[in-house]
């Protein structure tokens, strides 16, 4: 089996709270008896895209296994590239591919500079086509992006979801190797389907955003009470995708309540 850990919406903001919560989740992953093969961070790494916030993220998200990150609407591509990825600053989409055994993990940059809503650019779709064309025919492919491509009945997020999801759905529907899609952005653990495949929404380590049944703006929008959470995606030998969600108590593991 292949184990993919999904951390999301860490919102590093130079304060101690969000940093400690992200570090606690990273420590939880580091202590697992069976370590993940890769950690994917599905956007909103920082709260406002400042280079110092990426420096904080880089320090807190380091692990002795691959950690792959894509931008969200709170990120800035140039600082993201320069500080987090040690690359040359540019505003081009930060798309990445990572192969682990039979799994090909494709990370798509759905951020749009200056906007909160998401879109995959023509450049990203061309890159996705090329990447799929160079992926082995017997591979299992998992996509990841920040903006969910379906409405989640989460009023804040649904107004800034992925634009033109039909275009991505057509790619998925046309490729049987794609076993599912991971997204962030919603600050809630969630499950749906998209183009007939699983769509898994990874929870935020920072906060929980209400659905329409609990949201009462302006007071009750974001809940900072719950523990940080993480998603663990298993890809088994039959390329079946199984997802577990874990909240990670800030106080650590409790073996017995007695
Ligand atoms: Fe976020």
TrEMBL record:
ATP-binding keyword on record: no
Q: What sequence ranges are listed for the domain Calcineurin-like phosphoesterase? A: 4-174
Keyword list (alphabetical) reads: Hydrolase, Iron, Metal-binding
| GO terms for MF | hydrolase activity; metal ion binding
In which family does this protein belong, per the annotation? Answer: Belongs to the cyclic nucleotide phosphodiesterase class-III family.
> What name goes with this protein?
Phosphodiesterase
